[in-house]
Amino acid sequence: MENKMKVEVWSDIMCPFCYIGKRNYEAGLKQFADSNNIEIIWKSFQLDPTIPQETDGTENVYEYLAARKGMSYEQSVHMHDSVVATAKKAGLEYNFDKAVIANSFNAHRMIQLAKTKGLGDAAEERLFYAYFTEGKNFGNTDVLIELGKDIGLTEAEVKTALTDDIYAYKVTQDIQEAQQLGIRGVPFFVFDRKYAVSGAQPPQAFLETLERSFSVWRKENRVSPFEVSEGPSCTTDGICE
């Protein structure tokens, strides 16, 4: 991954536009000629860290948003219906009637561990689908273990993510970095630390930003013309591995 342009994405699992943004970014990336030279890096963000770690799972998303925004239950339902329609255009099925309000911190801890194994994108995808489509409670440890196994993690690895302070630190570090960069809402896509796309914009917006940022990155970085199958080798600095 050393010679790939980085696209960093600050995102929260309970953010409906983050999943839509992911899909729209992927649609733009598919149209990008140099997509094999792009590395996506997922960054943790919490929209509502005040949600208790332990919840009974009885509060639905309509009640949650109505209480948080000071609107009526009917207004909340209408707002969510609009999001469902937007998600459908991106090829996603949202079932807010099933969604369970939960604190996303532990889910982010699992994502941080998954990133160390090259499974960051898979973790994001599985957790998004679990929350918005399947109605799974990612605040529950057993559910997180199940979802972790789905992407190739072991039960022991998920438990490590939830108990080792290094992963909590990584989550907090991402959140603090977002604050330093002035990021107040998600999704927020940063291209090579030079360009940014805020929100779930259309695929064309992502494609145009990829093209613009990659043209700058390419001038500063050498890109191999080959698709390389890696194996044991020795380098000019004397390292053989």
How much of the polypeptide forms β-strand, as a percent range? 5-15%
What about the largest sheet?
4 strands, mixed
Assembly level: single chain
Write out the strand line-up for the largest beta sheet, numbering strands in chain order: 2-1-3-4
Query: Judging by the overall fold, what is the CATH architecture?
Result: 3-Layer(aba) Sandwich
- Gyration radius, to the nearest Å? 19 Å
CATH class: Alpha Beta
Distance between the termini: 17 Å
Could you give me the name of the CATH homologous superfamily?
Glutaredoxin
**Low-confidence spans: pLDDT under 50, at least 5 residues?**
none
Secondary-structure-based class equals alpha+beta
Helix and strand string, N-terminal first? EHEHHHHHHHEEH
Number of helices: 9
Number of domains: 1
Task: Give the overall shape.
Answer: globular
Number of strands: 4
Q: What is CATH's topology name?
A: Glutaredoxin
